[in-house]
TrEMBL record:
Gene3D superfamilies: 1.20.120.1770
Name of the protein described by the UniProt record: Cytochrome b561 domain-containing protein
Domain Cytochrome b561: 35-244
Subcellular location, principal: membrane
Native organism: Iphiclides podalirius (scarce swallowtail)
Keyword Transmembrane in record: yes
UniProt-listed SMART domains: B561
Lineage: Eukaryota, Metazoa, Ecdysozoa, Arthropoda, Hexapoda
Length: 260
């Protein structure tokens, strides 16, 4: 007899020790999940408010390139923070769901983030070309570029490994199990890089648009921009705190007398 790791086929749900939670732990869990949800939605809402109230809204036209640029911060925050954040939290929120449902929701939220990131990137690239501004001249640009690359690789690898390979479930189980911690680690890294890109981009936009003196004097728009930045940091802290100790779903250690 020997021990091995395998996915529980009887319950087909993510293993958790929620039945062992006390009242205080349940309160903490509910509070953190609620706070994370409010922050994830709120940071996108605050960004949209900033654009409409201070930046005159959105457009994709040659005569108003600045309005076209406005799509960039909004869509990048929506893609890298809101949708990606919810995608990460699903593995903590949906602990009692069947694995396949959580995987599908995880893929859907990333699928929603993908066009946001692509359109946001094209918007700023086209804006730079119209204004004669060099591309990839700042730290923000390169952090965002690396985050986009990792996001694309993560989505392609995850979709192929954890959804398509389910066609041959038993034959690929060990491979998928070994890939889980790698996929989870790079997923968190991509999310953190997205947060860093958003923060550096907000700071860059504030200084270039408002000027260092106006930004330092905390004008009303500077306060809103800083509020968005603080919200992004709060999202990162809450999301990472929520998923602490969980690398996606856990593997259960059982004896060989219960083969998968």
């Amino acid at each position: 007899m020997f021990d091995m790791y395998y996915f529980s086929q009887r319950s087909r749900s993510y293993d958790s020790d929620e039945h062992e939670r006390g009242a205080c732990e349940w309160c903490e869990y509910a509070l953190i999940i609620t706070l994370a949800t409010i922050l994830l939605i709120g940071v996108s809402a605050l960004t949209i408010f900033w654009i409409f109230f201070y930046r005159e809204g959105y457009a994709w036209a040659d005569d108003v390139p600045e309005k076209q640029f406005n799509l960039h911060p909004t869509l990048m925050v929506a893609g890298f923070i809101t949708f990606s954040g919810f995608s990460v939290l699903l593995y903590r929120i949906c602990r009692c769901f069947r694995r396949i449902y959580v995987k599908l929701l995880h893929a859907i939220f990333h699928a929603l983030a993908f066009p946001c990131i692509v359109i946001g990137f094209l918007a700023v690239l086209d804006f730079h070309n119209k204004k004669g501004i060099n591309n990839f001249y700042s730290l923000h640009s390169w952090i965002g570029f690396v985050a986009m690359g990792l996001f694309g690789i993560q989505y392609a690898v995850g979709f192929f490994s954890f959804l398509l390979l389910l066609i041959c479930n038993k034959g690929t189980a060990s491979f998928r199990a070994s890939l889980v911690p790698i996929h989870a680690a790079f997923g968190i890294l991509t999310f953190v890089l997205g947060v860093a890109a958003c923060l550096t981009g907000l700071t860059e936009k504030a200084i270039f648009t408002l000027g260092s003196e106006t930004y330092a004097s905390m004008s009303q728009e500077a306060i809103v921009i800083n509020a968005i930045g603080i919200s992004v940091v709060a999202v990162a802290v809450v999301v990472l705190y929520t998923v602490r100790g969980t690398g996606g779903y856990r593997l259960r250690k059982v004896s060989a007398q219960h083969p998968s």
